[in-house]
Write a structure and sequence with these properties.
six-stranded antiparallel sheet; 483 residues; binds magnesium ion; alpha+beta; binds adenosine-5'-diphosphate; 2 domains; Dna Ligase, domain 1; Rossmann fold
């Protein structure tokens, strides 16, 4: 963790909160658009990215009828527990930092539990030791504030905001749970939420906090299980769609995935037992968080496609949606396809990299969990090896289809002291990434029953570290100090 919070502009923090329900709505609408998902993920991606291809294949098998129309009626509701990640970045010619989306996580968004504790600690430290931390906070404030907001910083008091993540995420789970109960009337004493977790998971404390809060606030019991165990220990009633734990007879109302987002969570391979388990859970009437559609809507390829001109209009077609579209677009960084659908604009970004601007881009594969991106020299080498340059054109090798090229973001550099295992690991220049949690419950016919901002997370790392991720060892947990 970071010893102290990092300065963050109130305006930018407010923007992230305002966008939260809109991104929820977007994910829900994308998840129901089988054509869009097929066009975006079914083309170049499948050959080079068997993992996403498998998700898409299951989505089609389970939800899309022969006519091509999707049918979601067999499942209960959809529950989305999302985290949109942002870096502060200055647009060309602006002296203000704005939020730009790094990625949108729709599966296994972690740290709602631990980040709540860290922000409580930071609130305590900054008030209890106000005089000691003042200098550091003031120095950092100057770095993040644009010239006009440095003087007019609004009505909200400065400081670490209260983080509602640990109440709001369980409460969204409870909404889905209660919906299931009223729809299917299972035995109330024997109904549970299933947490699908990795064998050998190390981030268990964060998950347990959600489990304990679910019990404390809502008396909803949780059962934890890996996909491997779920294959043998969970039964699907083919007639009713009820999902039961074989040994106890407990019925599963909600399936919450904290695993299943990476190919390594399916050790038995693409025809193996973990994928069979995933399909079984998905086919049931339980509410899945995420459903296959929500999961696919969070892929980086979809993120890139949504940033194309005209794409958002497909999902927000009303005149009154224009404000929403504007807000979402402002948060998009430059995103470029390297697949067979690459446009002139995409190709000109590739040419830019090859001409020596590799420092302005990041190359990202369709992977979650940190540690896979290409920066600088590695990015240049990867493109050189897979792009044929003719006089004025570039030809992209098919392997690049599973990557997206993204504008590199340059968040403000702040001073911080980073700890590991309670000891100072180092101090110096750092950059931060804000995560904004949001929860949504929508019925199978598209009625939004619950949709709200659900707390935050700030991750801070030394500015010379390219990758992110706390669990993967690159970043620390921190909090925003609003100013
Ligand atoms: P993952 O699914 O692995 O978390 P991300 O898109 O979040 O993938 O990338 C991992 C990390 O790489 C981020 O946490 C961030 O630190 C860094 N990163 C990603 N995209 C950019 C970008 N456009 N500019 C600068 N850094 C980035
Ligand atoms: Mg990430």
């Amino acid at each position: 963790m970071s010893l102290l919070p990092n300065a963050y502009p109130k305006r930018a923090f407010g923007q992230a909160q305002e966008l939260a329900p809109h991104f929820n709505q977007l994910v829900d609408r994308v998840s129901r658009d089988a054509d869009f998902l097929h066009q975006t993920l079914g083309g170049g991606v499948s050959d080079t990215d068997p993992y996403t291809a498998k998700l898409l294949q299951l989505y089609k098998e389970i939800y899309v009828q022969e006519s091509g129309e999707p049918n979601f009626a067999k499942t209960a509701d959809f529950l989305g527990i999302h985290r949109s990640d942002y870096m502060l970045h200055k647009d060309k010619g602006s002296d203000q930092y704005n939020i730009k989306q790094v990625e949108l996580n729709t599966i296994a968004s972690s740290f709602a539990g631990l980040s709540t504790k860290v922000s409580a600690l930071h609130r305590h430290l900054t008030s209890r030791f106000e005089d000691d931390v003042k200098d550091l906070l003031e120095t950092n404030k100057k770095v993040v504030l644009g010239s006009d907001e440095a003087t007019t910083n609004g009505d909200t008091p400065d400081g670490v905001p209260v983080n509602p993540a640990l109440e709001r995420i369980p409460s969204a789970m409870k909404v889905a749970f209660a919906q299931y109960q009223s729809r299917f009337s299972p035995d109330p004493k024997k109904t549970v939420i299933l947490f699908v977790v990795q064998d050998g998971e190390t981030n268990t404390v964060d998950q347990r906090m959600l489990e304990f809060q679910l019990w404390q606030d809502h008396q909803v019991p949780v059962v934890r299980m890996s996909l491997t165990s779920a294959h043998t220990e969970i039964e699907l009633d083919g007639k009713t769609g009820a999902l039961k734990i074989a040994s106890t007879g407990q019925e599963i109302a909600v399936v919450y995935f904290r695993a299943g987002y990476a190919p390594t969570d399916y050790p038995d391979g693409y025809d193996g037992i973990e994928w069979k388990a995933r399909a079984k859970l998905e086919r049931s009437r339980a509410t899945k968080s995420p459903s296959l559609g929500y999961h696919l809507a969070g892929t980086k390829k979809v993120q890139q496609e949504l940033a194309r001109p005209g794409s958002l209009e497909r999902f927000f077609p009303q005149d009154s949606d224009k404000v929403i579209i504007e807000g979402l677009k402002q948060a998009f960084a430059g995103l470029y396809s390297l697949g067979d659908d690459a446009t002139e604009e995409d190709k000109s970004a590739v040419k830019d990299v090859l001409a020596g601007a590799e420092g302005k881009y990041v190359l990202k594969p369709q992977r979650e969990g940190g540690g896979y991106n290409f920066y600088g020299e590695n990015l240049l080498a990867k493109l050189k090896a897979n792009v044929k340059q003719t006089d004025s054109d570039v030809e992209l090798a098919p392997v690049l289809g599973e990557f997206i090229l993204m504008e590199r973001l340059f968040p403000p550099i702040q001073k911080a002291i980073l700890l590991r295992g309670g000891k100072v690991e180092g101090s110096g220049d750092t950059i931060s990434e804000l995560g904004c949690f949001a929860t949504v419950v929508a019925s199978t016919d598209g009625n939004v029953l619950h949709n709200e901002y659900a707390g935050f997370l700030l991750r801070t790392k030394f500015s010379n570290v390219d990758e992110g991720g706390v669990a993967s060892g690159f970043a620390t947990l921190s909090s925003p100090y609003l100013c």
